[in-house]
Design a protein that fits this description.
This protein is α+β, with helices and mostly antiparallel strands. Among the domains are: 154 residues, Isoleucyl-tRNA Synthetase, Domain 1, CATH 1.10.730.10; 212 residues, Valyl/Leucyl/Isoleucyl-tRNA synthetase, editing domain (Isoleucyl-tRNA Synthetase, domain 2, Alpha-Beta Complex); 62 residues, Roll (Ubiquitin-like (UB roll)), CATH 3.10.20.590. Helices cover 32% and strands 17% of the residues. The strands form eight sheets. Strands 22, 23, 24, 25, 26 and 27 form a six-stranded mixed beta sheet that branches. Strands 2-1-20-21 form a four-stranded parallel beta sheet, sandwiched between helices. A four-stranded antiparallel beta sheet has the order 6-5-7-15.
Amino acid sequence: MSETNPAATAPVTADAAPHRYTAAMAAEIEARWQDFWDAEGTYAAPNPKGDLAGDPELVARPKKFIMDMFPYPSGAGLHVGHPLGYIATDVFARFQRMTGHNVLHTLGFDAFGLPAEQYAVQTGTHPRASTEANMKNMVSQLRRLGLGHDKRRSFATIDPEYYKWTQWIFLQIFNSWYDDEAKRARPISELVAQFDSGERAVPGGGTWSALTEAERADLLGEYRLAYASDAPVNWCPGLGTVLANEEVTADGRSERGNFPVFKSKLRQWNMRITAYADRLLDDLDQLDWPEAIKLQQRNWIGRSEGARVDFPVDGERITVFTTRPDTLFGATYMVLAPEHPLVEKFTPAAWPEGTRDAWTGGHATPTEAVAAYRAQAASKSDVERQAEAKDKTGVFIGAYATNPVNGEQVPVFVADYVLMGYGTGAIMAVPAGDQRDFEFARAFELPIRCIVEPTDGRGTDPSTWESAFASYDAKIMNSSSDEVSLDGLGVVEAKERITEWLERTGAGAGTVNFRLRDWLFSRQRYWGEPFPIVYDEDGIAHPLPASMLPLELPEVEDYSPRTFDPDDADTKPETPLSRNEDWVHVTLDLGDGRGPRRYRRETNTMPNWAGSCWYELRYLDPHNSEQLVDPEIEQYWMGPREGLPHGGVDLYVGGAEHAVLHLLYARFWSKVLFDLGHVSSAEPFHKLFNQGMIQAYVYRDSRGIAVPAAEVEERDGAYFHQGEKVSRLLGKMGKSLKNAVTPDEICAEYGADTLRLYEMAMGPLDVSRPWDTRAVVGQFRLLQRLWRNVVDEDTGRLSVADVAETDVDADTLRALHKAIDGVRQDLEGMRFNTAIAKVTELNNHLTKVGGPVPRPVAERLVLLVAPLAPHVAEELWRKLGHTSSVVHEDFPVADPAYVVDETVTCVVQIKGKVKARLEVSPSVSEEDLEKAALADEKVVAALGGAGIRKVIVRAPKLVNIVPA
């Protein structure tokens, strides 16, 4: 570190106390130290090798990789709620540096996405221009907070040198398949070798060499981890793009823009995340994550055990998955999801003879009925379709299936309460045991057969029931045929018997099902990573060679996808990239021995989640142009070790809203890269911490419109804006709610250190808390008292006493070492609010004692404050005569002799009631404590001469006396 002393250049403020800590002084101090940190590279974290290699002594220390979730560079800039997590990780990172760690803490930008593109559509501004301007503003705002980031490692996902590797990872996934036997991803070339050698049979017979190129491509597409397919998607005409399930609200609208979303069938890229369902579930157990997040992922993955059952239909079959194969005899009809591909196949031209009017929906033919119902279902969200309270709707498709256990012909319906996204998109309906099936059967006059003996006294005649009955403790009944009998068995035994019968007869098999669906990976937008895929004249997809990466976004005249009437479900997307003809159709030599050929580029782009799936790896080795990350560097920062069985980032802080989006996607990409040998860490983030939200009051007028919070007056417990009474409700902070407070405002009025302290002192980091600008001054006064305890406000000189620690009074030493012990534990546990309380208590003690603060106490007080308020700590550290930065000083260690209280309070009880309190030594023996309790005059008076049957002693805090 430099021996220069920025503190020496501090200006003198002309004022009643010219050297008092003021907002102006704070601003000058903070700007000066931020410049110093940048110039000196104070926060540079050295790698063990490469262009970021550095101090070998630092590299030899235990490492600590601390990350914040990627921020998106919004045009609105930051409000005071945004930096909560960034300040918290900065405090923790500073503490880790001071406790002997090599700390990697940096920040980049997740810069692709819809907001910049929407702005481009509205204004014609290139998304890159507006995004870079937003980043510049956010960098300035974050710098003002004094965040200790290694700026050499920062980047944005829109940098071509970054998304070159996003595209490269996509190609690794595209060129891989999941080997169910080996339980890992393998290169697709190994699968080709198996087909070619005959080790793996080609489906349908024949040989690999006999297949055409298109047939080979189709076959490999059934295995690839990244594949294109025609599949039901969430089509949003109002945005002109398809959306992932997670981007659709519960009421069937787009999260962004609130447009209607419809089910449609389009050819899209997908990631086969379902192949990793078991590993994604199992590995959660070894992650240090909040249980609530683990539960959300477990529920989203949705593992369930049951059986696959085949119901024959005219020489074909409908396959269902059920967790209750023991109820097969109760299946009296079947239901297909409206999107099921077999619907059209099994729908005849005319209604079968005897079809009930209630089943046809009033249509002349099954084809008309099914088409009309499908159109109706396409306008509903999955949540709407599955709502328990809604009326059950559907139509008979005109076909019957055979129940394999008893040969009964059961009608097949299409109904929207069955989703294509779960199981096989088809169900065997057992109305006696499922409430939705029960309601549907009643509505369509379908049989209900009791197959589980009720235990609630309702009887066995379903015509008298008001609801379905389901139980795992009852006996099976009405479930026998010439083939198999389940009558009298318990549920568990019946499931085992019927599953064995299904497997023996070929009618089905025991299996595991997952709620998780493959990840839809296409967007019909401009502002995203281009796919490194081209198509030949036969429509076969070919990956670009790595030498052609990055494939950069071309310029286009119109950034908007073609949008449509938001309510028109029959439209199809048209992408902005498709309009650049010179970019779309190209002649390339892909290096496959075929020479130059004409190709068509993929005109969809990757979703905004792509860049954030792997950014932790780029932080490690940000300038590497030859490989994703150097293996030695990745092993150093993220490799498995004791306590981190799967490796990963040591601490990852961000919002809980990404539980089943970013966090699940990033885990999937990590596992693929691990399987292929590119990284040593099978998990991206070992420890996850979800910070709470800073809330603010929203004030609304009689029309329900938000009014500026800063203009609201409080009078007699009511709130008024321009004389009109307004309502107040605690909610989010944001520009649209007119209650946003910017960090710039608070820094200007009090300084960044005050803002940092206030946000950390508001309450536990993981809970939401209301913002109160009026309360910020409390932390500003703490810093003023701290300054006053070290610096003379009149002269600007030190006011500490240069004495040895042995000359410090015992009370002050106890206060100091208790503070050190408590703050150290609190910072390690991320309990920043209680750490600040302990610093405040020590500072108040010193103020109360009066006189010059002893140097040994003042120095350690400054070190305690350093992670929390780094600017003022640096300034005071230099004023105390030190030439090195406080950032890399050792954090104080408490002397155990002073941490233990001189005395503790012992409670003496008689018959469970407190009769006396004794001040005793913490090390008092049980024998001495009993004697002291029995000799106490209050205890003697309470006993009144009664004998003693028993004395229970729990030294040093409790004596319980039981009279005879």
